[in-house]
Amino acid sequence: MTPDSGGVNVGAVFRSEYGRAVSVLTGVLGDIDLAEDAVQAAFEIAIQRWPQDGAPPSPAGWIITTARRQAIDRIRREQKRDDKESAAQQLIEQQQPEPEEVHAVRDDRLRMFFTCCHPALAPAAQTALTLRILGGLSTAEIARSFITSEPTIAQRIVRAKAKIRDARIPFRIPDDAELPDRLDGVLRAVYLIFTEAHLATAGDEAMRDGLAAEAIRLARLLRELMPDEPEVTGLLALLLLTHARRPARLDEAGELVPLDQQDRALWDQDLIAEGHDLVRACLRRNHPGSYQIQAAIAAVHTDAPAFTETDWSQIVALHDQLAARDRSPVVALHRAIAIGERDGAVAGLAALEPLADDRTMQRYAVFHAARARLLTLLGRMAEADASYERAIGLTGNSAERRALQRRRSEGMP
């Protein structure tokens, strides 16, 4: 995408509106592939026309309208399926309004979430498809997020869309009785989209505020839809408490500022207050889950007036609860980091040691950066340098890479 066309950043419009446009077109056409192709064609036209004609008053509306026309033209050319021809005719005539869905939340993107996260799809495919369609991420970016290869992600997405088509998975929000079984995949997808926004996996942009806002918006919608599900509340609390630190995460030069150096006076106190209220609501329910525990950890961080005053004992205890539910190496890594802060670098390295041979951790920049920090604290600079080198090589985001290079060159833990 060209960075600027007719006074509008087309790349930014793509990031913020791609998912909505595909969702709207899918709702009308009933075909994700056709919707995606039409939306991509619309953005290509925008790149060509906006510099000459000027940006439209509503870039998002222009994209959706143009995509609809592209879909109609393609259906007319193919004319292979009667149902597609009928759909095209309905679009052309625009006489019959779409049937109104009677449900607590009417939102095309939310319907798309539940479609992408249908239990007929494997969990990894659910998240990859959601990141592609609703997050607007490239296959390469999703591969980095999954810590896996680009061809693997491409195959997952193709197979997932084929499954939706062949199994005729409906484009709708499930009935109330179906919602609990479908929730895990949706929560995971929202969480991963926010994670991508909080620190982009690739490119020059450290954070993607529009994507973060979309993840938070969707989390709010999910809570409106399922107010009695504590994990929905926990996820929203986690996103709010994490996003509250956003104003302090970049310095005046646009460089990333690590948590231990952030000016906490810049943190968004309104988001923190809302997040704390949600965490307390979860505690009253007394049905802890992984997102609620992560939100509680974030709440402890925001309670501390300074990094040195963080209650690491409480954070380690919460990580112990999380590890009992989720035995993934990423959870073990963050528990080891917390142990290092509570008990010192030697204890932290000892907690990291069982992960050293894990293949996922060997490809995970955060593991090597954490190890480099602990080794630096112990004065083992040659080993720390090697770990920093490994972390830098695995980091796709330019801002994160510069932050690691700065710590390495300055001998900072």
From TrEMBL:
A GO biological-process term: DNA-templated transcription initiation
Top-level taxonomic group: Bacteria
Gene3D superfamilies the record matches: 1.10.1740.10, Winged helix-like DNA-binding domain superfamily/Winged helix DNA-binding domain (1.10.10.10)
Residue ranges of every copy of the RNA polymerase sigma factor 70 region 4 type domain listed in the record: 116-164
Entry-linked Pfam families: DUF6596, Sigma70_r2, Sigma70_r4_2
Region annotation (Disordered) ranges: 77-101
DUF6596 domain location: 182-281
Residue span(s) of domain RNA polymerase sigma-70 region: 14-80
Compositional bias per record (Low complexity), positions renumbered to this chain: 87-97
GO molecular function terms listed in the Swiss-Prot or TrEMBL record: DNA binding; sigma factor activity
Skewed-composition ranges (Basic and acidic residues): 77-86
Key words, A-Z: Sigma factor, Transcription, Transcription regulation
Protein family membership: Belongs to the sigma-70 factor family. ECF subfamily.
PANTHER family registered for this protein in UniProt: BLL6612 PROTEIN, BLL6612 PROTEIN-RELATED
Descriptive protein name: RNA polymerase subunit sigma-24
Originating organism: Flexivirga endophytica
Organism placement in taxonomy: Bacteria, Bacillati, Actinomycetota, Actinomycetes, Micrococcales
